[in-house]
Structure formats: C-alpha cells, structure tokens
C-alpha cells in the first residue's frame, strides 16, 4: 500500500494522528476522543455509500473496531485520515463481497446495501456544480440522480465520496483505495461523466 506517499513530519500537526499515538500506548481516553472526532464523519460517509443509517452506524463501528485492533502496530507513516479511509474502504469492500455472495446463493440483497440513494444525490449535484434548469423539475431530478448514483460502480462511488465529501486529494484516495493516482483520476472521470450524461436534460447549458 502507498501509505508512505503521504508523510507526517510532526504528529502534533494532525490531531487524529496524535490521538492514535496515545491510543497505541494504551490511552483509553484518547480512543474515546478519536471516536468522538470521527463518528459523525464515518457514519455520514457510509450513509452516502449504503443509503441506510443503521447499516452506516454498524460499518462505522466496524471501522473503530479495526482501528482498535490495529493500535499496537500503528505507525504514523501517513496521515491518520489516509489510514482510516483505507480501513473504511476495506469495510465497504467486505460489505460488497458479502452482498455478492448472497446474490450467488440467490438470497435477495437488503435495501440497505443495494444503493446509495440517500444523501449522495444531493451531494453529487451541489458539489459538482450541476444545477437544475427548471425549479419545477427538482423532484424528478432527484429520482434521476438517485438512479445515476445507483448505477455507479462501488469503487467509483467510494472514490467520488472521498473526493467530494471528504475532500481527499488524488494521492490520498489512491492510498486509501490501494490504487494508482491515474486509476483514481480515471474512476472519478468516469463517475462524473456518467452522472453528467444521466443529468444532461436537466442541467443549465452553462455547466
């Protein structure tokens, strides 16, 4: 993994890294602070990814569990943000694999894991500069965006979330998803292109 690509010269510059170093030394209060600092961010990230709040909370808790399990071997060779997003990506991948195995066995997928139809639709429009051409079409637009988001590949969706919601750089996304920077750029280009194509009839020409 390319964690070393994002160096941390001084842990004090990154509060999360400083907290994680305390957690590594067995400081329970530091772990509680870390959970408080990241709880809402991770739940929101997974909410956009799965479309279900209960599932998002469960996945966030799984991330914290893995963070705690990995505390003794943690090394600040990268920003904590990169490390925790790597774990979050792995948790999302595990969810995807479980859903795939259910489909292979003919078990219907749960609504919570089927698509990211809650939240990301608004994010995709507001953060990408896509503006409805007609105010009256907002409700119809929401349905179109939801379908477009649901049509994105899981990796495209995660890359888009990290870029637009978490405001990660290409390098940070590449490290978190264990991809090259060109691969990340390709994922984001295809995701945005797919969204724009789906929304073409609802956007101002100026965008």
Characterize the structure shown.
This protein has nine helices and no strands. It is mostly helical. The protein has two domains: 1-111, Rna Polymerase Sigma Factor, Chain: A, CATH 1.10.1740.10; 115-207, Winged helix-like DNA-binding domain superfamily/Winged helix DNA-binding domain (Arc Repressor Mutant, subunit A, Orthogonal Bundle). Helix 4 (80-104) crosses helix 8 (170-177). It starts with 14 loop residues before the first helix and ends in a 9-residue tail after the last helix. Mean pLDDT is 75; it is low at 1-12, 106-121 and 123-130.
Distance between the termini: 37 Å
Task: Please count the helical segments.
Answer: 9
What is the helical fraction, as a range of percent?
55-70%
Q: What is CATH's topology name of the largest domain?
A: Rna Polymerase Sigma Factor, Chain: A
Our estimate of the beta-strand percent is under 5%
Indicate the structural class: mainly alpha
Overall 3D shape? elongated
CATH class of the largest domain: Mainly Alpha
What is the CATH superfamily label of the largest domain?
Answer: RNA polymerase sigma factor, region 2, helix turn helix motif
What letter string, H or E per element, gives the SSE order?
A: HHHHHHHHH
Number of strands: 0
Major sheet: none
Mean pLDDT: 75
CATH architecture of the largest domain: Orthogonal Bundle
- Counted up, domains total 2
């Amino acid at each position: 993994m390319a964690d070393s690509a994002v160096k941390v010269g001084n842990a004090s510059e990154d509060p999360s890294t400083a907290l994680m170093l305390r957690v590594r030394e067995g400081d329970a209060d530091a772990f509680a602070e870390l959970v408080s600092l990241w709880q809402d961010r991770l739940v929101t990230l997974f909410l956009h990814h799965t479309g279900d709040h209960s599932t998002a909370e469960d996945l966030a808790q799984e991330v914290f569990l893995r963070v705690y399990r990995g505390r003794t071997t943690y090394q600040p060779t990268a920003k904590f943000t990169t490390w925790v997003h790597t774990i979050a990506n792995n948790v999302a991948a595990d969810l995807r694999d479980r859903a795939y195995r259910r489909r292979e066995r003919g078990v219907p997928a749960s609504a919570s894991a089927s698509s990211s139809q809650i939240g990301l639709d608004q994010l995709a429009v507001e953060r990408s500069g896509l503006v409805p051409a007609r105010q009256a079409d907002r409700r119809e637009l929401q349905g179109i965006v939801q379908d477009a988001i649901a049509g994105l590949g899981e990796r495209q969706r995660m890359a888009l979330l990290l870029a637009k919601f978490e405001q990660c750089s290409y390098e940070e996304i590449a490290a978190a998803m264990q991809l090259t920077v060109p691969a990340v750029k390709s994922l984001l280009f295809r995701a945005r292109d797919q969204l724009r194509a789906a929304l073409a009839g609802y956007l101002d020409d100026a965008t």
